[in-house]
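A further point concerns the way the authors explain their paired sequence and structure data. Showing the layout once, in full, would remove most of the difficulty. For illustration, here is how one protein appears when written out as sequence plus C-alpha cells:
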Amino acid sequence: MDKMGLILLVEDNKDLNFANSAALRLRGYTVLSAETLAEARDHLSKAEPDVILLDVMLPDGDGFDFCGEIRNQTEAHIIFLTAKSEHADRMRGLTGGGEDYITKPFHAEEMLARVDIAVRRRGKEKTPAQKITKGSLTIDLIMGQAFINGHDLMLQKKEFSLLHLLMIREGEVVSAEELYNKVWGQPLAGDKNPVQKAASNLRKKIEESGYTVRNDYGSGYVFETL
C-alpha cells in the first residue's frame, strides 16, 4: 500500500531508528532518517516531509527548541517521540509547535496509527496555492509569471523560480548554495555568479513593487520590504 507520504524520523538511538524506519517503510511510507539535528536540517533543506517524528534528547540539541526553530519553515506535522513523559514536557511540546506527543516506550502500531492520521490531515491541507501576493507583486504558480499591478514582469524561468523560493521564505536569508541546488537543480560547484546575476536582474524588476532581493554578503539572499 503506497501512502504517498514522506516521513522525517529524527532519532539518535540507532536500533530504534532502524526499527521505526523499517516499520514506516513496510507501511508504505518514504523515510528520511536522521540521528542528529544537523542531519535533520540537511534533509529539510532538500525536502518537505509530511510528518516529522522528533526525539527530544539529541546529541547536538533539544528537540523542543528545534521544533520552534523550524515551525515557520515547514508545514509538516510534528510528532514528538520521547522518553520525557512529564506533563510539563508534554505541554511544552504541544504548545511549542508539535501536533502530537508519544512517550517511550510505545508500540509500533500506535506510532503508525498516529502517522496515518497526520498524513491524512496533511493531505487535506495540501491545496496548492495558485497565486502568491505581496502588496502589488503577484506570482502565478500555474502560469509561471510574475506581475506588478497586473503588469507582466517577463521574468526568465530561473528568475521566477528564485523569486518564488525567496517569497515563501520572506525575511529569511537563503544561501546561494541552497538557491542553486533548488533553482538550478544541482550542487553549487563554487561559482556563485549565476545566482548573483539572476538575483541582480530580479531585484531591478521588482523594486517598483516595494520589495527587493537583498544580498546579505557572505550569507545569501533575502526577500524583504524596501
About this structure: The mean pLDDT is 89. The domain at 6-125 is CATH 3.40.50.2300 (Rossmann fold).
